[in-house]
Amino acid sequence: MSRRHANPTRRFVSGGSNPFGGILHPKSHVSPLLSIVLVLVGAILLIGLFYGGSGIFGGYKEAISKVEGDFTCTLEVQRAIPILKKAYGDSMHKVLHVGPDSCSVVSNLLKEEETEAWGVEPYDIEDADGSCKSLVHKGVVRVADIKFPLPYRAKSFSLVIVSDALDYLSPKYLNKTLPDLARVSSDGLVIFTGYPGRQRAKVAELSKFGRPAKMRSSSWWIRYFVQTSLEENEAAIKKFEQASSKKSYKPSCQVFHLNSYH
Ligand SMILES: *[C@@H]1O[C@H](CO)[C@@H](O)[C@H](O)[C@H]1NC(C)=O
Asked: Within 10 Å of residue 132's Cβ, how many Cβ atoms?
């Protein structure tokens, strides 16, 4: 942008042997284009300021995180809602979602017909947007540390869906939290968790979660369920698989279906 930046290029071009001289010629073609881009970027930033960052910037941020592939199993839950509806049918009428960015899942679930939804957000929501703060204010989404018993009575929800949150818990806390999630559900518990070797959380976010995520393998989880007497929900697994193949849906996270306690 400054003159000093343009100089090396110009010298390069006037060297004569550069085969890309025509393309790289800075003065005639690149600069006007660059100015237009800069003006556009400036305009977008200004619009963002006017809209208080909630509307436009929310969508913009989401678009960026999708492009960068920085994506979470919470996003995967939202992609999977139509499949979950096929697999769980009426059991989707009263859903609790547990995990980071719960507001986004809850708002999406609330758009579905005949679905009531609540959320538990395990981490702070300082950077939450206005609509999320309003969900928290109404008590639809709660901020709660899931290492402690959830503030709900047994079988308060037909279905409990948890994403990402369990990857941050050591087995000691998993031993408490997972049975508690099964306790507050009546028709099942669905777990969305990352594949090992595919670190999803950005380094910057690690401090927020307290400890780095530990992605466990499918065999680790299955062994863990057996140890803690949690049963897999065979009927739901089958229906979920059928609905997935019908809609050519391939989850980017591991999905487990467990029975509630009876
Ligand atoms: C978790 O619970 C299982 C089954 O009750 C037990 O075998 C295991 O030692 C527990 N793990 C921890 C870290 O407490």
From this structure: 23
